[in-house]
Amino acid sequence: MTKIFLNSFSILLLLIVNSYSGVTSATQSSFTISQIAKSLSHSSNNTANQQSNNTTTSSIIDTVNLKADIQADAAKFGLTVDTAAADILSGIANTDSKSVSAALTSLSDNLTQLDDDYVSTPDQNTIVYSMAWTDLEKVTSYDGKTYSSNNNVFSATGTQQSRGKVYVNFKKKEIWADIDVKLTRAEGATSTLQTNYNTGTAGFTSVPIVATTVRKFKADGTNSWDNFDGINDTMKKNATTIQDVCDGCTGLTKAELIDNFNHKVTGGNTGDQDIFFYGKFTTATSSTSGLGTIIVEGGYVDDGANEATFAGTIERLEASGELTGKAFEE
Fold first, then answer.
1. Parallel, antiparallel, or unpaired: how do β-strands 80-81 and 206-207 relate?
2. What are the tens digits of pLDDT across the range 24-75?
3. For 320, which of 84, 100, 153, 230 could close a Cys bridge (C-beta 3.0–4.6 Å)?
4. 296: β partners
5. Collapsing DSSP states into helix, strand and coil, what is residue 231?
6. In a domain, 12, yes or no
7. What pLDDT is recorded for position 191?
């Protein structure tokens, strides 16, 4: 996952709006990795085989000596220790949404890329970290940036939710994720779309594991690269600019990116209504819970609006929390 939870996550874990009526479903194509970077994939058919098991992880904040446990897992599975991540996770005192979001923001992903077509199979050594359907909540301030309090992109009364399962095999040193989302846009066809996103498999060589993913979800239920440079947890670079165009995207301009993520379709405007998606996941050891976050964004401007105007309209929704892990069972 270099640009997917790895170039094609992580995660995690956990969009979109469609022009269909009612609640529709679409299956996202898998993508490739670069760090859970942008890749982590696995068939969601195996998800149905996940059953409850008495083997569960304990809360990360209940661990008496997390750093010692991290060292022990590193020795057990032949991994190194990401000391920066260990320091940050050892300092967590709460697992509320704000605390989890702040901790994850400070972590750098540390996955390794595997072949894009490699698919891992869950076995008795696989731990599944799950997040049930969780409401995505409006965020107007994040990491020194402000976001619009309007509800022009995401409906204030519609369903905005995500859920996900992250699969981690410490013995094989592999991680992948299945993510589902339900989003309702404010303009255009306001029906809720439920869609699934399967990441590709990534590798890891250290603990704690930190995985990130980024994607663009289109209004028709499909997904593709976000086309921003690098893996960013927001479209917004600062108050008046958005992230740079991806390196190698020859001919692509910021004006086109603004059109992609613009949700204004009234008054003769023709925004594509794509949704920016970002996910991040971490787990310190094979016996502790995971932490995850899902973020979605979109903007709302008249056709031809400049970059500063678009940046000022970006709306952001987020869900962050603790994910309990359970041993996988057929």
1. parallel
2. 444 333 333 333 434 333 333 333 333 334 468 999 987 779 999 999 999 9
3. 100
4. 277, 317
5. coil
6. no
7. 74
Whole-angstrom distance, CA of residue 52 vs CA of residue 174: 21
The parent domain of residue 232 ranges over: 24-327
Assigned token pair, 145: 């940036």
Structural element, H or E, at residue 99: helix 97-106
Closest CA to 48 of 182, 183, 180, 211: 180
Residues 276-291 have pLDDT tens digits of 999 999 999 999 999 9
For the purposes of burial, counting CB atoms within 10 Å of the CB of 58, is it exposed (0-12), middle (13-18) or buried (19 or more)? middle
Domain presence at residue 269? yes
Taking each continuous run of H as one helix and of E as one strand, the counts in the chain are 5, 17
Q: Is 202 left (phi over 0), alpha (psi -120 to 50) or beta?
A: beta
d(CA 62, CA 296): 30
Tokens of 276: 């920016």
Q: Can you spell out the DSSP letters for 251-266?
A: T--HHHHHHHHB---S
317 within 8 A of 138, measured Cβ to Cβ: yes
- Is residue 10 in some structural domain? no
- Token duo for residue 167: 């699969």
Q: Which two tokens stand for residue 311?
A: 């940046």
pTM of the entire predicted model: 0.84
- With contact defined as beta carbons under 8 Å apart, do 328 and 167 qualify? yes
What is d(CA 322, CA 294) in angstroms, rounded to the nearest whole number?
Answer: 12
Total tally of structural domains belonging to the chain: 1
Asked if the structure places residue 14 within a domain, the reply is no
Spatial neighbors of 229 by CB under 8 A, at least 6 apart, are 243, 244, 245, 246, 247
